[in-house]
Every structure is written in structure tokens, then in C-alpha cells.
């Protein structure tokens, strides 16, 4: 699933903005564009244009992002207290297109009652699946997920459920899959950034040559980012990612902070090469 992208009306659609989800750049795994917005027609316009340009037929709507700037603009989790608006978006898409649609949500922004109301309304629409992160938007990513509420939500809906949240190790996955055996799928987010080999470990695959494989991946990542983001954009993306990669490399926080102060891409890459040994 792609990082979330803005749903835009046809008159504002600029193909250049969407280069990084071009199928030519995403050949290893099937990609589902993940869209964020609050206007029904902007979703259908964007989906139709991405279908025409790139052939995409599967789409995901994000109403789970808890970031304050996103919530303030009634996007992401900021939509969850507004079930009429969420239902209007889903109704617009499912009634006017034949695209496959899924939705990523939380338990609510301020209260699980928001999520309960949405589950009730969404049961009337043909969704491929719901991804549920068992926190409120107000929780951000802090504290322990509300697994009892996740279990309740799972029982409240007829839709297929995918679990998302706090899978950082094989042990986390095993514990959750034993507790929720009827979950259809598992979304790896921050855990996969903190350990790029987590999916292989969950599958029981050998993960030898981890550092050399990570360095090869990092080199490919930079090679792909540069033509799309330019040097400054690539550097900004890498700095964000290295907050997570530092965990994998077991980099002391002082070293990470020193590296993040580098404002030249070539020097930053030299620092990553010397650290990832």
C-alpha cells in the first residue's frame, strides 16, 4: 500500500505528482494507492485518472492518520467524528465506479463510539476489507493498543478485517495471531521500517547477510528517489527513514542526531556508509 496521497479533483490533477506510484517503478509487489481527502468527487476523479494513467483498480481510503495538521483539515482520522461525510465518500465511490475499495481506520478520533457508528454504516457498502489500528487518534502512537476494543470491532462488522499496529517482532505477531485467529491479514508499518527483515522472520525465512542486503536496498532506494525527489527531497526522505533504520543498525541516539544535522546529500550518504557496517 502506498503512502497516503491527496485525492484531487480533475482540474487540479498533475501527473508529475504521482510519479512514484507509476507501475514502472513498482514492479516487485502489487501496489494499492492509498488516498486521503474529504470531498467525495475528488476521490472518484483521482481514482479514474489513476486508472486511466496507470491501470490501478484497487484503492484504499485513509481515515486513520492521527497527525495534527491532517486532523485539523478534517482529513485522515479527523473524518471519523463525521460519519455522514465518510459515508458520502464511500457511497460516491461504490455507486459511481467499479473499483475495489478498502478503508483504513482507527477506533475513533476522540471516542470508540465514532468507530462503532462508522462500522454500522459501512456494513451497507461493498468494501474489500477494513484495516483497523486499535488506538484512538488522540492516542497518536503512544501507550498500549486497545486490543479488547479491536476484538469488539471485529465482531461488530461483517467486513473482512486486517489488523494494523505495534507488530515489531515475531513474538508480537505470534501473540496477536493467536488472540485474533480470524483476522484476514496483518499490516506491517513502523515495525517493518525498524526491521526491514521482519516479514521474512515472521514467515520463518533465513535472514543471512542482513547488513549487506540492507546496504544494497538503501542504495537502490536512493537511486529511485533521486530522479523523483531531487537531492533536497531525497535527503529529507532519508532523514525521516533513518529515525527507524537507526533501530535496525543499533545506532546510538547521539550518532543519529549528529548524522541528522548533515544538510548535504553526499555527506549524508557517506555517513550512512560508514555506519552501516
Structural class call reads alpha/beta
The topology string of helices and strands comes to EEHEHHEHEHEHEHHHHH
Write down the oligomeric state: single chain
CATH class of the largest domain: Alpha Beta
Please give the number of β-strands.
Answer: 7
Task: Give me the CATH fold name of the largest domain.
Answer: TIM Barrel
Give the overall silhouette: globular
Residue stretches low in confidence (pLDDT < 50, at least 5 long) are none
What is the CATH superfamily classification of the largest domain? Aldolase class I
End-to-end Cα distance: 30 Å
Our Rg estimate from Cα atoms comes to 20 Å
Strand content: 5-15%
Measured as a percent range, the helix fraction is 40-55%
On the 0 to 100 scale, the average pLDDT is 94
Number of helices: 11
Q: How many structural domains?
A: 2
Q: In the CATH hierarchy, what is the architecture of the largest domain at level 2?
A: Alpha-Beta Barrel
Largest sheet, strands/sense/barrel: 7 strands, parallel
Q: Biggest sheet, strands in spatial order?
A: 1-2-3-4-5-6-7
What does this entry look like structurally?
With 277 residues, the protein is an alpha/beta fold. The protein contains eleven helices and seven strands. Helices cover 48% and strands 13% of the residues. The protein is globular and about 55 Å long. The model has no long low-confidence stretch (mean pLDDT 94). The protein has two domains: 4-166, TIM Barrel; 210-275. β6 (161-164), α6 (170-179) and β7 form a beta-alpha-beta unit. Strands 1-2-3-4-5-6-7 form a seven-stranded parallel beta sheet.
Amino acid at each position: 500500500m502506498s503512502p497516503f496521497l491527496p485525492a484531487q479533483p480533475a482540474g487540479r490533477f498533475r501527473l508529475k505528482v504521482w510519479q512514484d506510484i507509476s507501475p514502472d517503478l513498482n514492479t516487485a509487489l502489487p501496489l494499492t494507492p492509498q488516498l486521503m481527502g474529504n470531498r467525495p468527487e475528488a476521490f472518484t476523479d483521482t481514482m479514474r485518472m489513476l486508472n486511466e494513467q496507470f491501470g490501478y483498480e484497487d484503492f484504499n481510503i485513509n481515515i486513520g492518520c492521527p497527525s495534527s495538521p491532517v486532523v485539523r483539515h478534517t482529513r485522515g482520522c479527523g473524518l471519523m467524528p463525521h460519519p455522514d461525510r465518510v459515508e458520502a465518500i464511500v457511497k460516491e465511490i461504490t455507486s459511481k465506479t467499479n473499483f475495489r475499495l478498502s478503508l483504513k481506520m482507527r477506533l475513533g478520533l476522540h471516542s470508540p463510539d465514532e468507530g462503532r457508528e462508522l462500522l454500522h454504516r459501512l456494513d451497507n457498502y461493498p468494501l474489500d476489507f477494513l484495516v483497523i489500528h486499535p488506538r484512538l487518534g488522540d492516542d497518536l502512537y503512544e501507550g498500549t493498543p486497545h486490543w479488547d476494543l479491536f476484538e469488539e470491532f471485529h465482531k461488530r462488522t461483517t467486513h473482512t478485517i486486517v489488523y494494523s499496529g505495534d507488530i515489531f517482532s515475531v513474538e508480537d505477531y505470534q501473540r496477536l495471531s493467536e488472540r485474533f485467529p480470524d483476522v484476514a491479514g496483518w499490516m506491517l508499518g513502523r515495525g517493518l521500517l525498524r526491521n526491514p527483515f521482519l516479514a521474512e522472520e515472521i514467515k520463518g525465512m533465513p535472514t543471512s547477510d542482513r547488513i549487506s542486503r540492507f546496504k544494497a536496498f538503501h542504495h537502490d532506494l536512493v537511486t529511485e528517489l533521486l530522479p523523483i525527489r531531487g537531492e533536497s527531497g531525497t535527503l529529507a526522505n532519508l532523514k525521516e527513514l533513518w529515525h527507524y533504520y537507526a533501530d535496525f543498525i543499533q545506532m546510538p541516539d547521539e550518532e543519529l542526531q549528529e548524522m541528522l544535522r548533515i544538510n548535504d546529500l553526499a555527506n549524508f550518504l557517506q555517513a550512512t556508509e560508514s555506519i552501516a557496517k
